[in-house]
Design goal:
- There is one protein chain.
- The protein is α/β, with parallel strands linked by helices.
- It has one domain (2-239): Rossmann fold (3-Layer(aba) Sandwich).
- Helices cover 50% and strands 17% of the residues.
- The protein contains 9 helices and 9 strands.
- The protein has helices at 11-21, 34-47, 65-76, 92-97, 99-127, 148-168, 200-213, 224-233, 236-239; strands at 2-6, 26-31, 51-56, 81-84, 131-135, 174-180, 183-184, 198-199, 217-220.
- The strands form 2 sheets. The protein has a 7-stranded parallel beta sheet with strand order 3-2-1-4-5-6-9, with helices on both faces. Strands 7-8 form a two-stranded parallel sheet.
- Helix 1 (11-21) packs across helix 7 (200-213) and helix 5 (99-127) runs parallel beside helix 6.
- It is globular, with a radius of gyration of 18 Å.
Length: 244
């Protein structure tokens, strides 16, 4: 397996890579923190990865995406699967009053994904094989007052991957939309933990399985599917008054 992981320093992405490392995968990781990437690379090699190479990049610089992907493919000698996992969980309150901050959140969590997905889709469609896995969020299922900026970005990515999946189906390319709920990671360290929080280990393993099978849409843990279905069904007059 020749695997590219974009946003490789995220806790969930690391768990996915550890699963693939046990399968002797060849992995190229993209992230902003060179020291952190080097530490992850060493860990993956110990766990069995054939190789674990690092590319340092700022994914908000969209003009660099084409060259970044070309470099990764060159280092791997091909491409079988991709996981896109970068993102930020910014302050909803700050984004409500600062347009530039809100647009930066949309760039990181939505537009950079769309850029990468367009390039990767064309590459894998040409070779007529492969898997693209994308981490969105249950927050994208309906805009809630507590996080509608982040949720809107994830909703855009979810819709984009839905269309991309239909487009690439005839080419034999799987597009896996992953919708985690609350996961106990550094990204959510500022949130109060409760019974709905899952471990990054469990979520990472579920994503690994979904990528191997080429699933379509995955809620993880599973119970977020019925929870979000209920939230989507709430009538708007009731929903807008709910403390969600």
């Amino acid at each position: 397996m020749k695997l590219l992981v974009i946003g490789a320093t995220s806790a969930i992405a690391q768990e996915v890579m550890r699963n693939f490392a046990r399968d002797r995968a060849e992995i190229v990781m993209v992230g902003r923190n060179a020291e952190h990437l080097a530490s992850i690379s060493n860990d993956l090699l110990v766990r069995g990865a054939q190789c674990a190479k690092e590319i340092v990049a700022d994914l908000s610089e969209i003009k660099t995406h084409q060259g970044l992907i070309e470099l990764a493919v060159q280092q791997l000698g091909g491409l079988d699967a991709v996981l896109i996992a970068h993102g930020t969980l910014g302050s909803q309150a700050a984004s409500e009053t600062d347009v530039e901050l809100m647009l930066n959140e949309m760039m990181t969590n939505a537009l950079s994904y769309m850029s990468l997905l367009t390039i990767l889709a064309n590459l894998l469609a040409e070779q007529r094989s492969g898997c693209i896995a994308v981490i969105t969020s249950v927050a994208g299922d309906r805009g809630r007052r507590s996080n509608y900026v982040y949720g809107s970005a994830k909703a855009a990515v979810t819709a984009f991957t839905s269309g991309l999946r239909a487009r690439l189906h005839a080419s034999g390319v799987a597009v896996v939309t992953i919708k985690p709920g609350l996961v106990d990671t550094p990204m959510t360290s500022g949130l109060k933990k409760g019974p709905l929080f899952a471990s990054s280990e469990n979520v990472g393993h579920r994503i690994y399985e979904a990528m191997l099978r080429g699933d379509d849409v995955v809620y993880t843990p599973w119970f977020w599917a019925p929870i979000m279905q209920l939230i989507r069904w709430l009538p708007e007059p009731l929903f807008k008054r709910a403390a969600l």
